[in-house]
Design goal:
This protein has one domain (2-165): HUPs (Rossmann fold, 3-Layer(aba) Sandwich), CATH 3.40.50.620. It has helices at 14-24, 49-62, 80-90, 102-110, 128-137, 147-155, 158-166; strands at residues 2-7, 29-34, 69-73, 96-98, 114-116, 168-169, 172-173. Helix 2 runs antiparallel to helix 6. Strand 2 (29-34), helix 2 and strand 3 (69-73) form a beta-alpha-beta unit. The chain is 42% helix and 15% strand. The chain is of the alpha/beta class and 175 residues long. The protein is globular. It has a 5-stranded parallel beta sheet, sandwiched between helices. The structure holds nicotinamide-adenine-dinucleotide. Nicotinamide-adenine-dinucleotide (NAD) is lined by residues 6-9, 15-16, 18-19, 35-36, 76-77, 80, 83, 99-101, 103-104, 107, 118, 120-123, 126-128.
Length: 175
């Protein structure tokens, strides 16, 4: 059986990793759709699609899960009613969708696709916006993402990027 897991992964954190492991306990293979590929270099979406794929691949490889995962970049489209067709046109076939995102669940359910929620792991801390806040404030964040992801973010000077794009000019916050 092949599953689909959609996310923005800004960044790919321990909650995402646990979700992937949980799904792979139930599926042979997993298509991971990296969403919103057109967005990067802003406070909410810091990393490019390529960077998110890279961080995810490194974390999966370290856990010997890369051979069971197919990572596909998926841009957003300006029409929710057509989004499932858009995803289907880009991804290999899958039998079941794993998501807790209400819109993702609704759109796939509408076309009769089986949708399964994944258990939330340490949701208070393992949350993209919380982790980005910690990064901005200089607080500890590395333990909330897989080690390989932390190394990659540091290598790409991701914290410096986040701070630069969060600076205010005289009109307020830039991004
Ligand atoms: P996300 O990175 O916030 O989350 C991805 C998944 O991981 C979600 O199912 C989430 O519930 C789960 N998760 C998060 N934290 C977790 C934790 N601590 N433990 C376990 N699981 C956890 O991404 P998202 O916002 O759900 O991504 C949806 C993507 O689909 C976006 O890119 C969005 O733009 C795209 N989308 C696009 C359209 C369109 O283009 N019209 C429509 C619908 C969705």
């Amino acid at each position: 059986m092949r599953g689909l897991f959609v996310g923005r992964f800004q960044p790919f954190h321990n909650g995402h990793m646990k979700a992937v492991e949980w799904i792979l306990g139930r599926c042979d293979e997993l298509v991971i759709a990296v969403g919103s590929t057109q967005r990067s270099f802003n406070r909410m979406e810091v990393f490019t699609a390529g960077e998110r794929i890279e961080m995810m691949r490194r974390a999966l490889k370290a856990r010997k899960l890369d051979g069971r995962c197919i990572i596909i970049p998926v841009s957003d489209i300006n029409n929710n009613a057509l989004w499932v067709s858009h995803v289907n046109s880009l991804c290999p076939e899958f039998d079941v969708v794993f998501s807790n995102n209400p819109l993702v669940k609704l759109l796939f359910s509408e076309v009769g696709k089986k949708v399964v929620e994944v258990p939330l792991f340490d949701r208070k801390s393992c949350d993209g916006s919380h982790i980005r806040k910690l990064m901005l404030s200089g607080a500890k964040w590395k333990e909330l993402v897989p080690k390989e992801v932390a190394e990659f973010i540091i290598q790409k000077r991701g914290i410096e990027r986040l701070r630069s794009i969060s600076k205010e000019d005289k009109y307020g916050v830039v991004a």
